Amino acid sequence: MHQDARGHAVTLSNPAALDAYERALHALQTYRGDPTAPLDEAIALDPGFAAAYATKALVLITFFERRFMRLALATLEQGRDALAGATAREQALAAAARRIAEGAWRDGVRTLEGILVEQPRDIVALQVAHLLDFAHGDALNLRNRVSRVLPAWSASVPGYAYVLGMHAFGYEECNQYPDAERAGRRAVELSGNDAWAVHAVSHVMEMQGRVAEGLDWYRQTRDVWASEDNGFAFHNHWHTALFHMDRGDHAAALAIFDERFGGGSEMALMRVDATALLWRLRLEGVDVSARFAAVASEWERALDDGEGGFYAFNDFHAAMALAAAGRSEALARLREALARAQAQPDGNAEMTRSVGLDACEAAIAYCDGRFEAAAERLMAVRDGANRFGGSHAQRDVLTLTLIDAAMRAGMPQLAHHYANERLVHKPESAWGRRLAERIDGWQARRAA
Ligand SMILES: [Fe+2]
Fold this sequence. Notes:
Elements: E1 2-3, E2 9-10, H1 16-30, H2 36-45, H3 50-61, H4 66-78, H5 80-84, H6 88-101, H7 105-118, H8 123-136, H9 139-149, H10 160-173, H11 177-191, H12 195-207, H13 211-220, H14 222-225, H15 233-246, H16 250-261, H17 268-283, H18 289-304, H19 312-324, H20 328-343, H21 347-368, H22 371-381, H23 392-408, H24 412-425, H25 430-447
Antiparallel strand pairs: 1-2
The structure holds fe (ii) ion.
The site of fe (ii) ion has 6 residues, from helix 12 and helix 15.
């Protein structure tokens, strides 16, 4: 039987397909190029290559949109005959993909974990589970799932650096910043192309308010993450924009928006970042209404395509954009989708119930000028908001909105209360000091 580069038995008859498969895994690990193209190539070379179908389905799932779940199921159907005679590992990869695509997200991740118990070097199972842990905001497993397999890895196993890169991000989301930075820097050194590890180190700098270092880090590692074929580059550009915003350089953040997001995006992952950046700029008093109108139209198209109510984290960003652009009819449709989502027996229902709904209503209330209601909704969900996914840095938008809403509602003590976190955790951050000054200035004007 043939084996892949990590020593796993694979079901195939044409070994030439294995080369295409390894290229797909490299694309997946480095985020460079489309991993589904070499997987299609592998399938064309050997229609009996079971792992290629299962891996393609899992890659599609990581985009976390309803339409890609449908494509994943179609891919599994296409590979049904090949998978029927496949190894237990290949069949388990396919079963995990099916469960996730059908909505049983956590069940699917448990299936991937079952593979890792037997095959701790299964980097497909590991990376897909890692990305789902991210989608679930499961900080402990972002770290611990990687810890559980790490002893089976060493620098001599192809892909080791990417495992360290995942570990770095897990450490960061568990607030273990020195561990995260050490692992992330090592991953970048070893691989020379680990955009996820670059991103993990930038998160450390973001969380510690090391703004100048963050901008330097992104400049130094540009070759690793910023190539045109890097499918994750947009998110590192987004982080760069946040560093500029911390320094009060809104023009630089806007320039990044226009260059990297202004052309629109078919992908929800990108629309989330586009929305989150515009919302922060709006909170800072920058007029981004025309840009918001364009992003809101993209979310409306996604709603038309039935994406509403699929993933609470995306719905929250849709709500921000639609509310900022005053799209009341689309917001009504989003609310209907949220109501349906809560009744679904899938992984998103709990996310929507526990966080998504209040977060969406808070964004709508904020844009309606109902600031006290927005602040109350945000206080209700902020501390458990990891349950609807994303990173600490992404969910910071909840806190920034809460501070601004409390200030505008005439509750300066409440606004300061939450702004204090930033002052303590990010002592070098100018953003935190500006927020504190703004709250005082707002209050002084009200009193005058
Ligand atoms: Fe990030």
